[in-house]
Specification:
The chain has 26 helices and no strands. It is mainly α. Helix 5 runs antiparallel to helix 6 and helix 14 packs antiparallel against helix 15. The longest helix has 21 residues. The chain is elongated. It starts with 24 loop residues before the first helix and ends with a helix.
Amino acid sequence: MKILSTFLALGLLFFTAVVFPLEARSQSAEDFYENAKLAYRAGEYAKALDYFNKAIKAGTETADVYFRRGLSQEKLGDSTRAVEDYTHAIQLDPQMETAYNNRGSAYYRRGSFDQAINDYSKAIQLNPSYSLAYYNRGNAYYGKGDINKSISDFTKALELDPTDADAYNNRGWALVQKGEVAKAIPDFNRAIEINPEYSLAFYNRGAARVKTGDNNGAIEDLTKAIDLNPQYALAFFQRGNAYFRKDNLAKALADYNEAAKLNPNYPDLYNNRGWLLFTKGDVSDAIKDASRAISLNPKLARAYANRGWMYQSSGDCEKAIPDFSKTLELDGPTAAVLTYRGRCYLETGDQDKAIGDFQKAYSMDPNSPDVLVVLGEAKEKAGDYKSAAELFAKLVAIKRDDASAFFKLGVALGMDGKFFEAIDALTKSIKLNPHNSDAYTKRGIAYEFIGDMRKAKADFVKAKDLSSDSKRTS
């Protein structure tokens, strides 16, 4: 990304001023000042700072000398003294828009986004054609989380300077964060047209294409980013994601491993690699990666969710429950995680907590088939067959071609004593899946309860035949 100030500037050194005879002070101050500018242009920022200090001690008191010393301060990493110098320059020349812009950038680098925005706005007020100030303010708004104002400023910067590749790139990324990925791609295209060696723009376009499902295009872009910068850990990570989505697990794993070598402290990498390993059946190493992600970022909710699912899938609900609980604490309640935790509560015998989780999940997503199933089964297990039947009735309304949904409804209705309705539901289940012996058995029982022994016997015979056929073919 382009620097946010007219010049890159960071740093600080102290030097003892030399005392000059009064008659020689003016000439010596000018010499110091010129030597300071030469040293800065040569990239000798410590020497430049020394000369600027001497020039000021010798009597040079202009906005320009403080502005330039501020640049040297920043180059050497001291944004605090840079701010002091830019402030002094502004006091000497309140119309100096570059001093406002650069002080804004010093504030930006310190994370003081509101102060940065105020300074950029003042620079723009002084010079409405100052494209860099619009660009910089766009970055500050983005840092503050105001995506719309960020995009507006990048757009204004591009109106003033249509050749600014950084503004296209940053506007594109802001659009991605806003969810307008299709609009972002043309901005990345334009940034790359202006600068064909722009590795960040290739990376951003690749990451955007991953989001759109264009995995082949993403891989092409991310490969280019890696060609331009072979140490680009994030590009390996995102290309791994694209390969993972294409089910090319070998290449995905190779890219994740390379990313880990280049940046061993990136939590999302371990989270994703852990999920890949889990997909491959390597549960032990998958849990290690998820745990590594959590150790690097204890607030990474999805890593807790993934590790919880890994524990649950391997039958260790005692460990899964705390992970799901931490996910809910960090991310807030979601129907999916409540459902997972509820299932674990059932596994550990805590039926009340399970039903509580399923009820919350149902209140959040009353039309989720998964939630309807687990809550219905929990109600059934608790002996509340009427509620279970009501939930399964909603399930079959959503999944009209699902034999298992009608089967669950039929069983719940039968347990609730509604045998005619149970027979109707079980008959529909049998039509959708005529090979389910349990459906015939349950319907036979319902026929027995209404006194139709002929049909009951026929269903029991059919169930026995299907069960025998199943044994012979297994």
